[in-house]
């Protein structure tokens, strides 16, 4: 398997190199040169497999030439052995047609663990026996930071610098990052919002002097390996609900478009996905883009769903590339226009292609709270506000006879205040993180400028040999 950039000029890479690189050298994102395709019989053959065995089977085409299926299985067994539920991503039934796919049983209580526990092991494997030192630079709207830090804390050959917007993540999310004492972990709170943090990360990758000085890599969903790992739970859930014999729909709380794009990859691989509901909060750039082609950035509004308070969705570029006949030059021009003006129109091909699978829904705070109360009152399930956004959207898009799976992306205790406001009940932290508020925090606060952040990292990161 080879990987190409969405902007057309970066060299093609194998799985090892694309994992270590993160962002492409031309500013694009890596995607497989061609989508692997599973037959009806191959998908049916996933029935009854454990999550680890499913993961090895689904991901094997993406790692071909670098890792065998047996090697993948060994890595997955180690990655998912730390999860609190034996099924790793269990399904919970809400009613006849609606299901929750619980993705928060990992060590940091969020769906990002599913990919990042594996990514940390991949980094370690690919660096073993090498003199390379990896400098991971990432931005987080809440959950990526804690999951990435947990995955690489204390690992040799790696330093991680994680940017989060000051005051715009929950207290649990912040503390899960800032109370990790490993010397290779560096937390940076920046003035500004998540889009500011994400832009700084991209700027460091694209700055020739900086990127040549350090061996940079990414843990955000711009890293292909992260998306690859997230494809697995779409297969795992769909097969348990009747695939490939019947289609299954999914509703996904969406900010950076990585999680829902993994569902798109599953559909390209042959999984019968009836619909992907793209559930946004009032920061609705994706809903507008998919509904009428208007991909224009507006001011970010702070909400009880901070992981979705985004106006520039990095992974949307991967979809636009695939729907635009994989024309890297055209996509590069389109994205450069957006980066200059913060606005663009989707082409007819991009709009028509997305309409076949994606169903956009914008959910406000009131509907979010109603969804939380309904889940609690009708099904006895306490859900976090991000999951509630997706559940509200799922109920609008439900089709009779088609199972609708809402991705439950975070443990409700990560957003205790919002849950308590909506339901009157304050969810406790699981015992495995119960001492979180007794640990000492360690982070710095910097201006959200390239010079301030890159200078801080340059003074602490290991330069290339």
From TrEMBL:
Gene3D superfamilies: 3.40.50.1100, Threonine synthase, N-terminal domain (3.90.1380.10). Residues 2-80 form the Threonine synthase N-terminal domain. Coiled coil: none annotated. Its cofactor is pyridoxal 5'-phosphate. Belongs to the threonine synthase family. InterPro entries: Ser/Thr_deHydtase_PyrdxlP-BS, Thr_synth_N, Thr_synth_N_sf, Thr_synthase-like, Threonine_Synthase, TrpB-like_PALP, TrpB-like_PALP_sf. This is Threonine synthase. It catalyses: O-phospho-L-homoserine + H2O = L-threonine + phosphate. It comes from the Bacteria. Its EC number is 4.2.3.1. The keyword Amino-acid biosynthesis applies. It is an enzyme of class 4 (lyase). Pathway: Amino-acid biosynthesis; L-threonine biosynthesis; L-threonine from L-aspartate: step 5/5. It comes from Sphingomonas corticis. GO terms for molecular function: threonine synthase activity. Keywords: Amino-acid biosynthesis, Lyase, Pyridoxal phosphate, Threonine biosynthesis. The keyword Amino-acid biosynthesis applies. Residues 87-343 form the Tryptophan synthase beta chain-like PALP domain.
